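S.,

Sequence below, as promised.
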Amino acid sequence: QVQLVESGGGLVQTGGSLRLSCAASGITFSSCIMGWFRQAPGKDREFVGTISASGASTYYADSVKGRFTISRDNAKNTVYLQMNSLKPEDTAVYYCAAERDYAKGLPTQSVAYDYWGQGTQVTVSS
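The prediction came back faster than expected:
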């Protein structure tokens, strides 16, 4: 059974930082592309960033580039999202996702991903 479990969300002030974690089980994590998405109330799910199976390559949405960093530890089956300089518009439920086929590049569309976590709430107060 595949499980992706996010943690690390919470309430933070504008300009603050949070680090989200996503622990995976039931998949060959080191072969998976991992992505982060977010969904704010009343809005569509939005791509945040993605990391290749090896961790050598990343790609980010323009809205978070330079502020957010994705990393992974394949020995721990965990992917991270370090979020700095947070803004109120970053408030959303954040989801991690896994794509089993490492050869698919760095997909930005949610439909490309096979498995999803349950999400963790991030709230940035102004």
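The chain is about 0% helix and 50% strand.

Coffee later?
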